[in-house]
Design goal:
The protein is an alpha+beta fold. It has helices spanning about 45-55, 60-70, 75-80, 90-105; strands at about 5, 10-15, 40, 80-85. The chain contains four helices and four strands, in the order βββαααβα. The strands form two sheets. It has a two-stranded antiparallel ribbon with strand order 1-2. The chain has a two-stranded parallel ribbon with strand order 3-4. It is globular and about 40 Å long.
Length: about 120
């Protein structure tokens, strides 16, 4: 089957049984009808701010502005088929993902991936 693109630089193969789209604006862009399931990854607001400060080297004011500009997490969660809470450890998050993945009939293993 041919590849298609939802937008430039975002190829999707129609021959795949599963396609994972990591799209921060998926819900806001109206792409939800193109998806069989919506997974939302969430954590508490203070943790979002802390992570932005650490990973993006933002100061606290910049991080708070970025988080405030996003749609509320509760709105995203309301549209989700699966919610992954990643406010805990990476191992806890992996367990949630694997459990949700198994529910839809796929085997997973993160054992060989680096942490």
């Amino acid at each position: 089957m041919p590849d298609v693109s939802l937008s430039p630089g975002l190829p999707v193969s129609l021959s795949s049984s599963v396609a994972v789209i990591d799209a921060i604006k998926l819900l806001e862009s109206g792409w939800k009808p193109l998806c069989d399931a919506i997974w939302v990854v969430t954590c508490v607001q203070e943790q979002q701010i802390e992570r932005l400060m650490t990973t993006r080297e933002m100061n606290e004011a910049e991080a708070r502005t970025r988080v405030a500009a996003q749609p509320p997490q509760v709105d995203k969660i309301a549209q989700a088929d699966v919610v992954i809470d990643n406010s805990g450890s990476l191992e806890e998050t992996k367990r949630q993902v694997e459990a949700a993945w198994r529910k839809i009939g796929y085997k997973t293993s993160f054992a060989d991936e680096g942490s």
